[in-house]
Amino acid sequence: MFESKFTYTNDIVNDLIYIERYKTQLEYLYLPTRIKQEMMYKAKMKKTHFSTSIEGNVLSYDQVERVITEKGKKTKIDAEREVVNYWDALSYLEKCREEKRPIDIHFILELHGIIERRDIRKKTIGFRQQMPPGVLFAVYDSVTRSPEYIPPEAIDIEPLMSDLVAWYSKENDLPVPIKAAIISYQLVTIHPFEDGNGRTCRALATYVLMLGGYDFKGFNSMEEYYANDLEGYYKNLQMGLPVLYYDGRNNPPHLENWIEYFIRIMSLNAENIARQAEEATKNEQEKFEYGNLNKRDTKMLRYMLENSMDSVKTKDLAAIFEVTPRAITKWCSNWVEREILIANYINVRITSYSLTEKYKKMTLKDIGFIE
Question: What is the DSSP pairing of strand 349-355 with strand 341-346?
Answer without folding.
Answer: antiparallel
